[in-house]
Design a protein that fits this description.
648 residues, Rossmann fold, 4 domains, 7-stranded mixed β-sheet, 6-stranded parallel β-sheet, 22 helices, 18% strand, globular
C-alpha cells in the first residue's frame, strides 16, 4: 500500500513529494485511468499510481510514447471515465499532434494532462516551456503554488475539465515535483465498478453522444474558444488565486508555481511584507481580467517572477494594455528588462536581488567575510568532476568499441545520438563519440539524412545510437524511413533491459508491465528484420568482438545495418548485487606511469571502479563499487588487471 493511500481518513496530514500529492488529488477525484511515458521529473506519478492500482481499481500504463499515452487517456474520457496523463516538458511536444485535435473535438469524462517542466535542465538537455502549449492549443492552464495545492488543484482540475468538456493542463516544475511538503488529505471516494461506455449514435454535433471529431473545424474552434471564455470567468473566483499584503502596495509581485515559495521567502527575509503585495496565480491561462485589474490598479510598479520564459509576464502586460484606460500605465519589472534571468531556475536570492534593485534596499544574506571565504574555498576545494557512466555500465564498453572501430576505419566516421544515459557519450566519459544530440529517436532520423549524402561526395561512415526504450518510443519510424529510402547507416541499439535513465520502468521489450502483469515482449531484432534491416546481436562486454562487428558493418556499403548490444544496466534488478568476476590488479605487472599507456585505465577508460594510487604509482580496483563486469581486464595493455569468476 502506498503512503498516498495509507490513511484514507479525511483530515490526515502526510509528508508527500509533489508528484505524490498530484496522485493523491487524482485519487480523491475518482480517477480511473493513468498513462504516461517515463521522463524526469514526472516519472513518479505513474509509478505511484501503479502501486495503488489494484487497491483503487485503476488501469495504469507506461505507453510507448507520450502521444500514445494521451490517446489512451483520451479514450477513457470518451467513455466517461476520469483519466490523467503525465509527461515531462519534452513529451508535450511529442503529444502535441494529437493534443491539437483533442482540444478541438472536446472531451467527456474529466481528463488532466500533467506536464512536469525542468527549469535549469537538471535532468534534461533543454529547459523547454510547456505553458505555451496551453495558449497555443487554447486550453486551461493550472499551476500549483505549494504541495497542498498540488493535491487540491489536481482534484479540482477534473471537475473543471468536465464542466468545460475540455482537457485541462496542470503544470509542475522540478522543485514542485521532487520536493516534499505536508499535505492534508481529503476523502477518497468509494470505488464501485464503474462501467465504461462510448456513445456515438447521437446527432453528429452532440458533445455527449455524437462522434468525437474536431470537425466541422470552424464551428468546433468557436466552441473551443467559448470554453476558454467560460474558464476565464470561473478563474475570477478561483481559490487558487491568492493575495497577501497591503491594500495599496508600493510594489505588486505576481508569481506562480514554485516561484511562489521563492517569493514568499524573499519577502520574509527582507522584511517588506508591509510594502510589497504578493499575488499568487494558480490559474495562469487564461488570466482572470477582473482579478488582475483590481490588483494592478492598486500600484504603479509590478514585478513578475516565474520560470523560465516570460510567459506570465507577457500575458499580464497584454492584459494591462487592454485595461490601461481603467488602471493607468504601469512600470513592469521581470525577465524582459533583464532584472530576472531569462534562463535557469529561480531561487530566493534572485528574487531578493530584484527586490533590492526596485526598492533600493541594502541587504546582505551573509557577512562579507564569510562570502569571501566561501569564494576562496571554491578555488581551493575539491577538483571538478565530469559526469561518468556508472561502474560496470555497458554503455562505457559500447562506446569504447565504437570509438576504436571509427578510429581504425580511418574515414572520419561519426555517431548521431539522442536522449538517454548514453547522451553523456558526447563527453570524455563516452570518448567523445557522439557528434549530434537532439530529441528521442533523432539520432536515427538525422543519420538517415546523412546516409543519403553519398551522392554529394560524403564518404564518411554514418552511425546512430539509441536505447531500447527509445527504440520503441521514436526510432521505429526513423528506421522505416532509412530502410525504405536505402540510407547507408549503422544503427547501434544499446539494449540495457529497461528505461534505465528514469528508474527502470518497463517498456515493450520486456515481459511484464507497470502493473506486474505478464505481457508479450516485442523483440527488437525481429522488428528490425521485419522492417528490412540487416541485424547482428553482440555482448558489449566482449569489446574486441563488438569492435570487429562494427567495422564489418561500416564496410557494408548497402542499406541499413542494426547492431544490438545487449547487456543489462549495472543498476538493474537482474545485475544489482551480482558480480560475475572478482577483479584484481597485479601490481608487479602494472607499470604505472612507466607503462607508456598514459594510465589508460584510470585516465581514459575512467570506470569509477578503477582508481589511481599515487603513493604506489599503481592502478587499483575499488572493491566497494566495482560490479565485476570484467571489461577492464580486456583494455589493459599490460594485462595487469585480472578477473576471476565468482562462484554462483
Amino acid at each position: 500500500m502506498s503512503h498516498v493511500t495509507v490513511d484514507t481518513s479525511e483530515g490526515s496530514t502526510v509528508l508527500l513529494m509533489g508528484n505524490e500529492a498530484i496522485v493523491r488529488g487524482a485519487l480523491e477525484a475518482g480517477v480511473n485511468v493513468a498513462s504516461g511515458y517515463p521522463g524526469t521529473p514526472s516519472s513518479e506519478i505513474v509509478e505511484t499510481f501503479s502501486k495503488v492500482a489494484s487497491e483503487r481499481r485503476l488501469y495504469v500504463e507506461w505507453s510507448v510514447n507520450e502521444k500514445v499515452a494521451l490517446e489512451v487517456a483520451a479514450a477513457a474520457s470518451f467513455a466517461r471515465l476520469r483519466s490523467l496523463c503525465a509527461m515531462k516538458q519534452n513529451g508535450v511536444n511529442v503529444a502535441s499532434d494529437f493534443l491539437l485535435h483533442l482540444v478541438g473535438s472536446g472531451t467527456r469524462g474529466g481528463i488532466v494532462l500533467v506536464s512536469c517542466d525542468d527549469p535549469g535542465a537538471l535532468s534534461s538537455v533543454n529547459e523547454g516551456e510547456s505553458r505555451y502549449f496551453a495558449r497555443l492549443m487554447e486550453m486551461p492552464l493550472l499551476e500549483p503554488g505549494d504541495f497542498q495545492e498540488a493535491k487540491d488543484m489536481t482534484k479540482w482540475a477534473f471537475d473543471l475539465s468536465e464542466e468545460l468538456k475540455q482537457i485541462v493542463m496542470l503544470r509542475s516544475v522540478t522543485r514542485m515535483s521532487h520536493a516534499s511538503g505536508n499535505v492534508t488529505f481529503g476523502a477518497l471516494p468509494d470505488q464501485p465498478a464503474k462501467k465504461a461506455e462510448f456513445k456515438f449514435d447521437g446527432f453528429i454535433l452532440d458533445p455527449d453522444e455524437g462522434v468525437v471529431i474536431s470537425a466541422p473545424v470552424e464551428w468546433k474552434h468557436q466552441q473551443q474558444q467559448e470554453k476558454v471564455k467560460k474558464a476565464r470567468e470561473m478563474f475570477e473566483t478561483s481559490p487558487f488565486n491568492t493575495y497577501s499584503g497591503p491594500e495599496r502596495p508600493e510594489l505588486l509581485l505576481i508569481t506562480s508555481s514554485a516561484c511562489n515559495l521563492y517569493s514568499r521567502e524573499a519577502l520574509k527575509l527582507l522584511g517588506v511584507e508591509d510594502r510589497v503585495g504578493l499575488l499568487k496565480l494558480g490559474t495562469t491561462w487564461p488570466l482572470p481580467p477582473k482579478l488582475l485589474g483590481k490588483h494592478l490598479a492598486s500600484t504603479d510598479k509590478v514585478l513578475i517572477v516565474e520560470e523560465v520564459i516570460p510567459f506570465l509576464e507577457e500575458n499580464v502586460k497584454i492584459l494591462a494594455a487592454e485595461l490601461a484606460s481603467e488602471i493607468g500605465t504601469k512600470t513592469f519589472y521581470g525577465k524582459n528588462d533583464g532584472l530576472i534571468p531569462m534562463t535557469g531556475e529561480m531561487n530566493p536570492d534572485l528574487v531578493i536581488e530584484a527586490l533590492k534593485s526596485i526598492l533600493n534596499l541594502d541587504y546582505r544574506a551573509v557577512p562579507q567575510e564569510y562570502e569571501q571565504t566561501a569564494q576562496l574555498s571554491a578555488f581551493t576545494g575539491a577538483p571538478p568532476r565530469d559526469q561518468v557512466f556508472c561502474p560496470g555500465c555497458p554503455h562505457r564498453a559500447s562506446f569504447f568499441s565504437i570509438h576504436n572501430a571509427i578510429e581504425l576505419d580511418g574515414r572520419k566516421g561519426f555517431v548521431c545520438g539522442d536522449i538517454g544515459c548514453y547522451s553523456m557519450a558526447i563527453r570524455p566519459t563516452g570518448f567523445g563519440v557522439l557528434k549530434t544530440l537532439h530529441a528521442m529517436g533523432s539520432g536515427a532520423g538525422v543519420a538517415s539524412g546523412f546516409g543519403q549524402l553519398g551522392r554529394f561526395g560524403m564518404d564518411q561512415p554514418v552511425l546512430a545510437v539509441c536505447g531500447d526504450s527509445t527504440f520503441y518510443h521514436a526510432v521505429i519510424p526513423a528506421l522505416v524511413n532509412a530502410v525504405h529510402n536505402r540510407a547507408n547507416i549503422t544503427l547501434v541499439v544499446l539494449d540495457n533491459s529497461g528505461t534505465a535513465m528514469t528508474g527502470f520502468q518497463p517498456h515493450p521489450g520486456l515481459d511484464h508491465n507497470v502493473l506486474g502483469e505478464e505481457v508479450p515482449a516485442v523483440d527488437i531484432a525481429k522488428v528490425c528484420r521485419g522492417i528490412g534491416a540487416r541485424v547482428e546481436i553482440r555482448d558489449p562486454f566482449d569489446v574486441e568482438e563488438t569492435r570487429r562487428t562494427i567495422n564489418e558493418l561500416m564496410d557494408d556499403p548497402e542499406g541499413v545495418k542494426v547492431l544490438i548490444l545487449r547487456q543489462a544496466c549495472a543498476l538493474s534488478p537482474q545485475r544489482k548485487y551480482v558480480k560475475n568476476y572478482s577483479m584484481k590488479v597485479d601490481e608487479e605487472l602494472c607499470l604505472g606511469e612507466e607503462c607508456g599507456c598514459g594510465r589508460f585505465c584510470t585516465r581514459i577508460f575512467r570506470c569509477p571502479g578503477l582508481i589511481w594510487n599515487k603513493d604506489k604509482g599503481k592502478a587499483l580496483i575499488d572493491e566497494v563499487i566495482c560490479v565485476g563486469c570484467g571489461v577492464c581486464a580486456d583494455i589493459c595493455p599490460q594485462k595487469a588487471i585480472r578477473r576471476e569468476e565468482v562462484a554462483s
